[in-house]
Amino acid sequence: MVAITASMVAELRAKTDAPMMECKKALTEASGDFEKAEEILRVKLGSKASKAASRVTAEGIVSIHIEGTTGALIELNCETDFVGKNDDFLGFGKTLAELVAKQNPVDVTALSAMDLNGVTVEATRAALIGKIGENITIRRFKRFSGASKLASYLHGTRIGVVVEYTGDEVAAKDVAMHIAAMKPVSLQASDVPADLIEKERSVATAKAAESGKPADIAAKMIEGSVQKFLKEVSLLNQTFVKNDKQTVEQYLKSVNTSAQGFTMYTVGEGIEKKQEDFAAEVAATLAAAKG
């Protein structure tokens, strides 16, 4: 039997970037044959990716890439916030954002099939899963291209905003930061989704009914609540975070700047996270050991 040395393991790791123990196991199985060991690793890493595919990815990062009036905003997910800080994971997110901006894929499937350093994005993703040991998913992206300038703001790596604008860059960046803080749902009141308005109207109607006010007064209360809601969730009507004496619209006008639209991604938004009961898990493990 061939002795597997530390230098052999280190050499295979340098070539494949696979975990040390996986390299040692592959070399042992291949009786020291490097080519065979590499093949074994490719199979095993692919297997790891398949096993990980069912696990929820509610953590991760938002990455942004902008060149002139072309840019991209992308959300890349993983299972834990620890992996969300991994350099390889962060690098993959930045690379994907640049690829979207430059190559303009129509959707995640098209992006996954694109070439990345001689292999597909999907193959790169699968290899990264094998290396890191967590499921990784490309959740969504948006590409920007047109006459409008682009300003962006990243709050750490978990909230990303891109603003399409004309005018002053500093003002646009300030508004991008405002969006990350105040989380408007639309640019202006007329763009607020109808389902959100109806939900707010329903709540206001219930409150008006509880008040016992006459019907005409109750109707005014309902409409007032809805109008207040629309101002609170539409960007241009919100009070600007850097000056509570102005709305965002008033601030932009004061610096001859106009916002045409914005997009905000928040990591894990809308994804149901698995709730872990560690006490129950430990108890179950101890019970199984005793049994």
Architecture blueprint of SSEs:
Elements: H1 6-16, H2 20-29, H3 34-52, E1 59-67, E2 70-78, H4 87-103, H5 108-112, E3 115-116, E4 119-120, H6 121-132, E5 137-145, E6 149-155, E7 159-166, H7 169-182, H8 194-211, H9 215-233, H10 248-254, E8 258-266, H11 278-290
Antiparallel strand pairs: 1-2, 2-5, 3-4, 6-7, 7-8
> What is Rg?
26 Å
For the sheet with most strands, the description reads:
3 strands, antiparallel
Structural domains: how many? 3
- Reported by name, the CATH topology of the largest domain is Tetrahydropterin Synthase, Chain A
CATH level 4 superfamily of the largest domain: Elongation factor Ts, dimerisation domain
Can you give a write-up of this model?
The protein has helices at residues 6-16, 20-29, 34-52, 87-103, 108-112, 121-132, 169-182, 194-211, 215-233, 248-254, 278-290; strands spanning 59-67, 70-78, 115-116, 119-120, 137-145, 149-155, 159-166, 258-266. By secondary structure, it is of the alpha+beta class. It has three domains: 6-52, Ubiquitin-associated (UBA) domain (Helicase, Ruva Protein, domain 3, Orthogonal Bundle), CATH 1.10.8; 59-182 and 257-265, Elongation factor Ts, dimerisation domain (Tetrahydropterin Synthase, Chain A, 2-Layer Sandwich), CATH 3.30.479.20; 189-252, no CATH class. It has a three-stranded antiparallel beta sheet. The chain has a three-stranded antiparallel beta sheet with strand order 6-7-8. A two-stranded antiparallel ribbon has the order 3-4. The longest helix has 19 residues, at 34-52. The mean pLDDT is 87.
